[in-house]
Every structure is written in structure tokens, then in C-alpha cells.
Design a protein that fits this description.
Distance between the termini: 18 Å
Shape: globular
Number of strands: 10
Order of helices and strands: EEEHEEHEHHHHEHEHEEH
CATH superfamily: P-loop containing nucleotide triphosphate hydrolases
Number of domains: 1
CATH class: Alpha Beta
CATH architecture: 3-Layer(aba) Sandwich
Structural class: alpha/beta
């Protein structure tokens, strides 16, 4: 059984505003899928419909044997524990430390009063330290989030999502505000972690070259419909023209690959 199965997912705001139409795709364990397409193609809407931050008009999102579209609020909250979300704008609490932001990923597992006092089990704290080491931020544990660079903030967002011990990652434009070198480092980090933990991920990404370099499979959206679904090698000039329109794609060369940084600890798969 696929880690995630989407069937006929549709989001129409009106007859003239069709964000998604009949999107169907499966995501396997450990598979990293890159969503590409022009602005307004429905990439962010698709990600938000999967965890129902946006309510679909129709269709199914089957995750761990449950159709998320049919769940009530309480049951949806339970399922969302297993879905890590990484946002373009980081969504950190600026006045809190790096460690406190990472531990906020455990709020769904901690009783309400303890969460108000930010009292977490020792096992959660130990895992947060391990995650921060894994994303290269072990020296910034007690630094406030508003003192970090964009790349560092994105790493905190990754660690926070992983602190949930998720079974699925949804990632919305993780490199949009980053310089090219940092963007490659972030995409490499996400790819490596997903491979280590056999963690499936869907990434909304604008940079086609980054997608071709770091994801296993590419899904192209245009006007809310899937117009391409294949490997990076299958994404040729004709397919890019079908997704984006006419352009000289032959001149779009990838930049040389920089040396791979080593951020230390490799985490065991979540159980």
C-alpha cells in the first residue's frame, strides 16, 4: 500500500476559479516528489488540501488507511500528528529559542497545561538535540529565532517538523527566499533525511534545476491539473514547454555542485 494515495482531489472556489481538478497520484515510502508549475498552478493548494489546511471540494486523501477528507476535527488532529509541514516563511515563533521552536513540534503529544509551561519529556528534549545536530544547528540551541539567517531558520523548520516523528512531510517552497548555495544545501538535507528514514515527502518548488537534482519524481501542474508525472530524466524540453509554455529551455544549465557539507548525526528511522 502506498504511503499516500490521492484520488480525484479537486478544489474549486467557483465555476471560474478552479485551483485543482481531479488530481490523482500515489506517494511511496521514502519517495521525494517535487511539484513544479507556473505561479497559480495549484502547487500550494495541493499541499494544503492534503492536510486540510484548505478544504477540498471533493476527492480522497488516503493516509495510513484513512481518508483525511472525511475526518472530523478531532480525528484530523490525530492524523496531523503524523504529517510534518515545512513552510516557505518558516512559521517560527521569533521570540523563542531554537530549541523551544523545535520542541513546539511535540505540542500535539503533550498535555495542554504542560505545553503552556513548555515542559517536555526528557526523551523529546534529547531527540531535539539530536535533530539540531543533524541539521547543523547544535551551536545555536539557545539563540532566538529572530537572530538566525534565512537558511538557519529553514533548518529549524525542518528539525521542528521531524520532531513530530512524522510519516509524511509536506514542504511548501523551502528555497524561495534563499541564495543558490543555501538552497542546494537545504534540498540536499531534505533528500538525505528522507532517504535515511524512508520518509515520503512532497515539495512545492519553483526551481526546476533543484527539483531535477534532488527529487525522485516530478509532478508538473498547470491550471490545477497534472500534466506531467515522471522521473527527472523524463522531464525534457517538450514537457517543460507543456507545463510552463514556450521558452528556450536548452539554455537553462544547472550550476556546478558544491562540496557536500557534513552535518553529523544520522538518525534512526522513527518507529
Amino acid at each position: 500500500m502506498s504511503a499516500l494515495s490521492i484520488k480525484g482531489l479537486t478544489k474549486h472556489y467557483s465555476a471560474d476559479d478552479k485551483a485543482l481538478t481531479n488530481v490523482t497520484l500515489n506517494v511511496e515510502a521514502g519517495e521525494v516528489i517535487g511539484l513544479i508549475g507556473p505561479s497559480g498552478a495549484g502547487k500550494s493548494t495541493l499541499i494544503r488540501c492534503i492536510n486540510r489546511l484548505t478544504e477540498p471540494t471533493s476527492g480522497e486523501v488516503n493516509f495510513q488507511g484513512v481518508n483525511l477528507v472525511g475526518l472530523n476535527r478531532s480525528s484530523l488532529k490525530q492524523s496531523r500528528r503524523q504529517i510534518g509541514m515545512i513552510f516557505q516563511e518558516y512559521a517560527l515563533i521569533e521570540r523563542l529559542t531554537v530549541m523551544e521552536n523545535v520542541l513546539s513540534g511535540r505540542l500535539g503529544y503533550v498535555p495542554f497545561l504542560r505545553s503552556l509551561m513548555r515542559r517536555f519529556p526528557g526523551s523529546d528534549i534529547q531527540r531535539a538535540y539530536a535533530l539540531l545536530d543533524r541539521v547543523g544547528l547544535s551551536e545555536h540551541v539557545n539563540k532566538r529565532a529572530d537572530a538566525l539567517s534565512g537558511g538557519q531558520r529553514q533548518r529549524v523548520g525542518i528539525a521542528r517538523a521531524l520532531s513530530q516523528q512524522p510519516s509524511l512531510l509536506l514542504i511548501d517552497e523551502p528555497t524561495a527566499a534563499l541564495d543558490p548555495k543555501t538552497a542546494r544545501q537545504i534540498m540536499r538535507l531534505i533528500s538525505d533525511i528522507c532517504q535515511e528514514q524512508q520518509l515520503p515527502a512532497i515539495i512545492n518548488i519553483h526551481d526546476v534545476n533543484l527539483a531535477k537534482r534532488f527529487v525522485d519524481r516530478i509532478v508538473g501542474l498547470k491550471a490545477g491539473e497534472v500534466v506531467f508525472d515522471g522521473t527527472p530524466e523524463q522531464l525534457n524540453e517538450d514537457q517543460l514547454t507543456r507545463i510552463y509554455g514556450e521558452e528556450d529551455w536548452s539554455s537553462d544549465e544547472a550550476a556546478p555542485e558544491p562540496p557536500t557539507p557534513n552535518f553529523g548525526l544520522v538518525l534512526e528511522p522513527a518507529v
